[in-house]
Write a structure and sequence with these properties.
three-stranded parallel beta sheet; about 160 residues; 5 helices; 6 strands; alpha/beta
Amino acid sequence: MFPHLCDNFPRLQTACESTKSKRDIFGIHLPEEASKCLLVGENGSGKSSLLFQCALSYASEGNKVVYITHSKLQTMPLQVHGTSRPDAMLMKQVQLLYLVDREALLDYLSSIHTIALPPHVIIVDDLDYYCKPSQGVDLNSSLGLTCALLVDAASFITHRM
């Protein structure tokens, strides 16, 4: 986990912590002004399931969503309590993109500007996995480049809408 990353991204707040936001996804308020958000938690805490449900929620609003993960999903992630199983039409709005390493993620993010119909939303599952530096690259440089490209991609898709 990279706790110093959290300072650069808005923190998700539970429903009891904030009532100012208009964007409520499964009891979690997303900051209105945020075009990027970082979800942090321990292994096994349900982050992947929550991120996948966020992808479905954005897709249900008509958004094209790219959900990036490094390992193939063997089954659908657990559903958040009270949600229904997504139908085939909704799943077509969510593109599962399996990127096996940091270089593949960086290639995708740096090419987002060239995609004819870029997504409205990019969700990266297990960011810690992608922030591991390549051989010969120090951790700070790896984190800096990865975060810079994530922020650039988020800014691009936010401002093109």
